[in-house]
């Protein structure tokens, strides 16, 4: 069996007694040179993973309307899976590993008492900031020492420092994640992004030579992440 096939232990309940059933085996969608992608629901796949870091940008529960926001290209994106506010992200905070979680200010009730913040400063000009809704975004980190950080990286429909393509309605800039992975993780760490989207973390992990596992429930986004990796080869 491939060492990156996930074996997920399961239990069934009958009449208030737990019955152990055969483990679920999950095969990788992509598996090459330390980068593994699963097209799966992370709530299930994560049970079999022990990362050093979870670095992720989950759906914030804001019912993001991509068609309304995407002023530039006129492209139409499908809605983001589980962005209806019903996804309970508690499992992310109780999982093993250090954490960087974008949008965590949207669910303060789940946050442990302590932690350091990252502010992504994406200001452009007043008109553009107004149209984007906010000139900054916050990510919570599980570090309890050190200091809070501000990363200045311009992005969005108006200015894109990466100069790269836009694949996902809420795609993060490569430069932002490059700085985060460089500052927070070490060479042999295993980084997990359970809400990988189009694979920004995946692309950066590959560039930095980090071991990486990405999960997305949408096959379309797993496919895009694979395309982004292939461009780098
Ligand atoms: C905010 S987006 C991530 C965007 C990413 N940072 C990028 O740069 O492309 C969140 C992603 O989580 C995925 N998702 C939603 N629910 C999920 C679940 N239960 N398991 C795995 N992925 C899920 C969505 O398909 C979406 O692509």
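-> sequence recovered:
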């Amino acid at each position: 069996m491939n060492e990156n096939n996930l074996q997920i232990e399961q239990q069934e309940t009958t009449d208030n007694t737990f019955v152990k059933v055969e483990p679920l085996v999950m095969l990788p969608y992509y598996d090459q040179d330390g980068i593994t992608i699963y097209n799966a629901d992370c709530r299930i796949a994560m049970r079999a993973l022990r990362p050093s870091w979870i670095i992720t940008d989950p759906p914030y529960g804001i019912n993001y309307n991509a068609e309304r926001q995407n002023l530039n290209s006129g492209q139409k994106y499908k809605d983001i899976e589980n962005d209806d506010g019903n996804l309970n992200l508690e499992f992310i905070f109780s999982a093993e590993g250090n954490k960087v979680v974008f949008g965590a200010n949207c669910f303060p009730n789940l946050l442990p008492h302590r932690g350091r913040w990252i502010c992504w400063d994406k200001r452009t000009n007043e008109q553009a900031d107004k149209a984007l809704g906010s000139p900054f975004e916050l990510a919570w980190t599980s570090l309890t020492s050190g200091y809070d950080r501000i990363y200045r990286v311009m992005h969005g429909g108006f200015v894109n420092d990466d100069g790269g393509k836009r694949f996902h309605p809420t795609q993060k800039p490569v430069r932002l994640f490059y700085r985060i992975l460089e500052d927070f993780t070490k060479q042999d760490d295993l980084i997990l992004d359970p809400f990988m989207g189009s694979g920004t973390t995946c692309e950066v992990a590959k560039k930095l030579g980090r071991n990486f596992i990405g999960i997305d429930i949408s096959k379309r986004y797993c496919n895009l992440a694979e395309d982004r990796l292939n461009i780098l080869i």
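The chain is about 25% helix and 25% strand.
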